[in-house]
Specification:
The complex is a heterodimer of chains A (642) and B (166). Chain A has helices at residues 8-35, 37-58, 61-80, 82-119, 122-134, 138-145, 178-196, 236-256, 269-273, 285-326, 356-362, 382-392, 416-425, 446-457, 480-490, 506-519, 534-556, 575-595, 622-625; strands at 147-158, 164-169, 206-209, 212-218, 222-230, 278-280, 330-336, 343-349, 370-376, 399-404, 407-415, 434-436, 440-443, 463-468, 471-478, 498-505, 522-524, 559-567, 603-607, 628-637. By secondary structure, chain A is of the alpha/beta class. Chain A has six domains: 44-73, no CATH class; 146-280, Beta-Lactamase (2-Layer Sandwich); 289-376, GMP Synthetase, Chain A, domain 3; 382-443, Histidine-containing Protein, Chain: A; 446-507, Histidine-containing Protein, Chain: A (2-Layer Sandwich), CATH 3.30.1340; 520-637, 2-Layer Sandwich (60s Ribosomal Protein L30, Chain: A), CATH 3.30.1330.60. Classes of the chains: A alpha/beta (642), B alpha/beta (166).
C-alpha cells in the first residue's frame, strides 16, 4: 500500500495545534473574561482597593479625578436626602456642640462666681480701686487676682513645617497673629535644641515669662503649646498630653500628609477648647461668703419689700380709681401715677358728687399725693340726681325715694312738712321733672298742725288749742267771729281732721246776758192808766243802754234783734178796755224808746192777750203784776246788706 | 488658605531683611535675628488665583562668625537665596550656602535673588556669571529692596514652584 504525499498545510496546522493549544485555551479564556461583563466587574472589584491605594501613593491625580464626581454626588445626595446626613452627623455634632456649650457655661459661671465672691469684701474694694486705676473691668481684675492659673491660648503646631494648624483662645483680645507666634515657638524650640545640643528628640517642654508660662505637649506630627497665666496644677500636663494624643488619633493621617491647608483641623476645636481651663484660689467659707450672702439676701429682701410696696400701692391706686370711676357724677378722663412725685387725676365732676379726697382716704391712698383737676358738669344719671335731691332735701328715716326717668317717686311714711317742701321745690332740681307720691303715707306732726292753726287764725291768749290724733281741741273763750273762722278753717288745715270745740262764745254770752236783763225788766203802770208808775221809771231809764248793748252783741253773733214790748193789764174792768189799755201801755214804752233813738221797725208793741205769768221769785204784788210792760228779745239771722 | 513655610537665606549684609521689610506683615522686631537667629514674618501672595500664606523665616546672615542654623530649615517648602549684586563674593557664598541648605532640606524649590539692583554702577555680576547660573538651572531674580523692584515677583514665582513642582 502506498501512502500519498502529505499536505504541508495540514501538517502546519497540526503542528500549530500541538504547540499552541495551551495558549489558545488561555486566549479563549481571556476573551471570555473580557466579553463577560459580570466577570470583568468581579475582577476589577478584587483589585480596585489595591489600585486606589497605589494611586494615592503616587500622587493626587486619582483624588483630583474623583473630586468633581464625588462633589456632585455628595451635593445631590444632600439635596435629595438631607435627613440621611442629619442622622449621620447628629451623633458626631451633638456631643461637640453640647461639650462646647457646657464648657462656655462653666467658664461663665466660674467667672461670675469669682466676681460675686469678691464684690463685697475688703479685698474686693481694693480690686475695684485697681480696676478704676488701670481701666480694666472689675471682673477682669478679680479674675487675675484670684486666679491660680488659666490656660489662655492653645496652639496646635505642625511639627515639621512649624505652621499653625489651629489656635484657640480664652479671650479673643489676647490673640495676636497665631501663625507667626506658632512659627516663633518652633524657632525657639529649635534654638534651644541647637544651642544646647540636646538632640532631635529632645523638646523644650516649658518656659516662663513673667506671669505667663508656655507648656508644650509634643506629639509625633504636631505639638500643643499652651500659654498659661499663673501656676498650673500638675494635672494639666496629662490633659494636654491626652489632647495631643487624641489629635493624632483623629487626624493622624492628615497630620502626616499636611501640605499647608489647615482647614481640616478646624474640627479639633472642641478638643482644644476643653483645655482652656482655669482654677481660682479657694475662698474662705466664713467671712466673705457670708457677707456676700448677707448682702445678697439684703438686696433681695429690699427688692422684695420694694416690690410688695409697689404692688400694694399699685393695688390701692387701682382700687381708688375703681371706686372713683364707680361714683356717679365723677368721670375720670386721665389718671397718672409715677414712682415719684404727685399722681394726677383729671376729669369731670358734678357738684353733688362726693369728695374725691374722701374716696382716696377710703381706699387708703393719701389725697395729699394726688393733684386733682376737675371740670364742672351736670350729671343726669339717676344716682347723681338722687344725691342732688338728698343734699337739698334730707330724706326722713321712714321715707323712701327713687328716681325713674326723671320722675321722683316718694313712698313710705312721709312727714307732711317735708313733702310739702318737696312738692314745691323738687322740680327745680336738675334731673327731676315731676313728683309722684303714690303709696306715700303722710305723717302730720300735731304740734306743727297746731302751729299752722295758730298761724292761720292768729294767736289768742284766751284760747288754748291742742292737736291729738288729728283732733283739734279748743278751750277758753273767744269772739263769735273768731270762733266762726276757727270752725270753718280748722278741718281744712293739714293734720286736723276734726274739731272739738269747747270755747265760750264771748259775743253770744254778752247777747244772752243782755237779752236776759232786758227780758227780766218790767215797767209798772198806774191802775187803769197808761201812765208809768214811779217805780217803773227806774227800770225804763236803764233800758235804752241795755238794749244798745244787746243790739251790739247780736250784731257780733250775726243776728238782728227785734224787741217785742208786751203790755199787760189787770182783770179789773172790761176786756175791751183792758185790751186797749194793754196796747197803749206797750205803745207808751215803744214811744219812749223811739224817743231814745231806737229804730221803730225794731220795736214791736204788743197788747198781751194772756195774763202775765210771774216767774218764781217775782217780787211784784199781785196788783202790780198785771199792770206792767214786759220785753222779749227776738233774734233773727241778720240779712246781709244789699 | 494654603500655608507654606519658606526661608530667606544669604550671607550677612545682602539685604535679606530689608528686602522683605516693605512687603510683609511683621510682629517681631529685628533683634530676634541677633538673639534667636530667626525672625518670622507673614505674607500672602496670589498664585494663579489661589491665595497662599507664606510664613517667611528670615534667617540670620551666614558668615564666618555665625553659621546657618539648619534646624530652622526643617519643613520649609522652599527658600529664597539672597545675594548682593554689588558684591560678587556674596553670590559665591550663596552658592555655597545653597549646597548646605539643599543637603538639609532635600529637593525643595528655591530662587536666587540678586539684590540691590538699583545700584547698577556698582553691579559686579557680569553676563558670564549669569550664564553660569543659568547653566546650573537657577533663575536669578534681580531685586531692589530700596525700590521694591522684583521682590513681589520673586515671592510669587517661588510660591508657584512650591505649589506646582516640576
Amino acid at each position: 500500500m502506498q501512502r500519498g504525499v502529505p499536505d504541508p498545510t495540514e501538517d502546519f496546522e497540526e503542528l500549530r495545534r500541538l504547540l499552541l493549544s495551551r495558549e489558545r485555551e488561555q486566549l479563549r479564556d481571556l476573551s471570555d473574561r473580557l466579553s463577560d461583563k459580570q466577570r470583568r466587574s468581579r475582577d476589577i472589584a478584587s483589585v480596585l482597593p489595591e489600585a486606589v491605594k497605589m494611586s494615592r501613593e503616587r500622587g493626587e491625580q486619582l483624588t483630583q479625578a474623583l473630586r468633581p464626581a464625588v462633589e456632585v454626588s455628595f451635593k445631590q445626595s444632600i439635596d435629595q436626602r438631607p435627613q440621611l446626613f442629619v442622622d449621620a452627623l447628629h451623633p458626631l455634632i451633638g456631643p461637640i456642640v453640647r461639650k462646647s456649650v457646657a464648657e462656655t457655661l462653666r467658664r461663665l459661671l466660674q467667672s461670675f462666681n469669682q466676681t460675686l465672691e469678691h464684690t463685697f469684701s475688703w479685698r474686693g474694694l481694693k480690686w475695684r480701686w485697681e480696676a478704676l486705676r488701670t481701666g480694666r473691668s472689675f471682673a477682669e481684675v478679680v479674675m487675675l487676682r484670684s486666679l491660680v492659673y488659666r490656660v489662655e491660648q492653645l496652639f496646635l503646631i505642625h511639627r515639621e513645617t512649624s505652621l499653625s494648624l489651629l489656635h484657640v483662645s480664652a479671650d479673643a483680645t489676647l490673640s495676636k497673629d497665631s501663625d507667626m507666634v506658632a512659627g516663633m515657638l518652633s524657632a525657639i524650640q529649635d534654638f534651644a535644641r541647637d544651642s544646647f545640643s540636646t538632640g532631635e528628640d529632645s523638646n523644650l517642654e516649658e518656659f516662663r515669662v513673667g506671669e505667663l508660662q508656655v507648656w508644650i505637649a509634643p506629639g509625633r506630627h504636631a505639638y500643643l503649646a499652651a500659654v498659661i497665666r499663673g501656676n498650673p496644677s500638675l494635672e494639666l500636663r496629662p490633659t494636654l498630653e491626652e489632647t495631643i494624643e487624641t489629635v493624632h488619633v483623629l487626624k493622624g493621617s492628615a497630620l502626616a500628609e499636611f501640605k499647608g491647608d489647615a482647614a481640616a483641623f478646624e474640627s479639633l476645636r472642641p478638643e482644644l477648647e476643653s483645655c482652656l481651663r482655669a482654677q481660682y484660689a479657694p475662698v474662705k467659707k466664713e467671712g466673705k461668703s457670708t457677707r456676700a450672702w448677707i448682702v445678697i439676701i439684703l438686696i433681695a429682701a429690699l427688692a422684695t419689700a420694694g416690690l410688695i410696696l409697689w404692688f400694694r400701692n399699685h393695688s390701692k391706686w387701682k382700687d381708688f380709681l375703681h371706686r372713683l370711676r364707680a361714683q356717679p357724677g365723677l368721670v375720670v378722663t386721665e389718671a397718672r401715677k409715677g414712682w415719684f412725685g404727685r399722681a394726677e387725676v383729671r376729669g369731670l365732676r358734678d357738684a353733688s358728687a362726693p369728695d374725691p379726697a374722701a374716696i382716696a382716704r377710703e381706699a387708703n391712698v393719701d389725697p395729699a399725693r394726688i393733684r386733682f383737676h376737675w371740670n364742672d358738669f351736670l350729671a343726669l344719671d339717676p344716682a347723681s340726681v338722687r344725691r342732688r335731691f338728698e343734699q337739698r332735701f334730707p330724706v326722713p328715716e321712714q321715707t323712701r325715694v327713687g328716681i325713674n326717668n326723671g320722675v321722683l317717686e316718694i313712698a313710705g311714711s312721709v312727714p307732711y312738712e317735708w313733702l310739702e317742701r318737696v312738692r314745691r321745690e323738687a322740680t327745680l332740681i336738675p334731673g327731676v321733672k315731676s313728683v309722684v307720691e303714690t303709696g306715700a303715707n303722710i305723717i302730720y306732726d300735731p304740734e306743727l298742725a297746731r302751729k299752722r292753726f295758730e298761724q292761720q287764725l292768729g294767736l289768742l291768749d284766751t284760747v288754748n288749742a291742742v292737736v291729738a290724733n288729728g283732733v283739734l281741741t279748743l278751750t277758753g273763750e273767744a269772739s263769735h267771729r273768731w270762733l266762726l273762722r276757727a270752725r270753718a278753717a280748722a278741718t281744712t288745715l293739714p293734720g286736723i281732721t276734726s274739731l272739738n270745740d269747747h270755747v265760750v262764745d264771748l259775743d253770744q254770752r254778752a247777747f244772752d246776758q243782755s237779752k236776759s236783763i232786758i227780758e227780766s225788766a218790767f215797767v209798772y203802770f198806774l191802775t187803769d192808766k197808761d201812765d208809768i208808775a214811779t217805780e217803773g221809771f227806774a227800770a225804763l231809764s236803764r233800758l235804752p243802754d241795755e238794749i244798745r248793748r244787746c243790739e251790739k252783741a247780736a250784731k257780733q253773733i250775726g243776728t238782728d234783734v227785734t224787741l217785742e214790748i208786751h203790755g199787760y193789764a189787770d182783770a179789773v174792768g172790761t176786756e175791751s178796755r183792758n185790751a186797749d189799755l194793754r196796747q197803749r201801755r206797750a205803745n207808751k214804752v215803744r214811744d219812749f224808746l223811739v224817743s231814745c233813738g231806737f229804730e221803730p221797725a225794731r220795736l214791736k208793741p204788743i197788747g198781751a192777750e194772756q195774763p202775765f205769768k210771774p216767774a218764781p221769785g217775782d217780787k211784784a204784788t199781785p196788783e202790780q203784776a198785771q199792770r206792767r210792760v214786759a220785753f222779749k228779745v227776738v233774734a233773727q239771722p241778720s240779712t246781709p246788706a244789699p | 488658605m494654603i500655608q507654606k513655610k519658606i526661608c530667606l537665606i544669604g550671607a550677612s549684609g545682602v539685604g535679606k531683611t530689608s528686602l522683605i521689610a516693605k512687603f510683609v506683615h511683621s510682629m517681631f522686631s529685628d533683634k530676634y535675628l541677633t538673639t534667636v537667629g530667626v525672625k518670622i514674618d507673614k505674607k500672602t501672595v496670589s498664585v494663579d488665583g489661589a491665595e497662599v500664606m507664606l510664613m517667611i523665616w528670615d534667617l540670620e546672615g551666614d558668615d564666618e562668625y555665625q553659621r546657618l542654623q539648619t534646624s530652622y530649615l526643617r519643613g520649609t517648602s522652599g527658600y529664597l537665596l539672597v545675594a548682593d549684586g554689588t558684591r560678587q563674593i556674596t553670590l559665591d557664598q550663596a552658592i555655597e550656602i545653597q549646597g548646605r541648605v539643599a543637603a538639609a532640606t532635600g529637593p525643595v524649590p528655591f530662587l536666587l535673588a540678586l539684590n540691590k539692583s538699583d545700584l547698577a554702577s556698582q553691579w559686579e555680576i557680569d553676563q558670564s556669571r549669569m550664564d553660569d547660573l543659568t547653566a546650573r538651572g537657577w533663575k536669578p531674580f534681580q531685586t531692589s529692596a530700596k525700590e521694591g523692584a522684583g521682590v513681589e515677583e520673586a515671592f510669587v514665582e517661588l510660591s508657584r514652584q512650591m505649589i506646582h513642582p516640576h
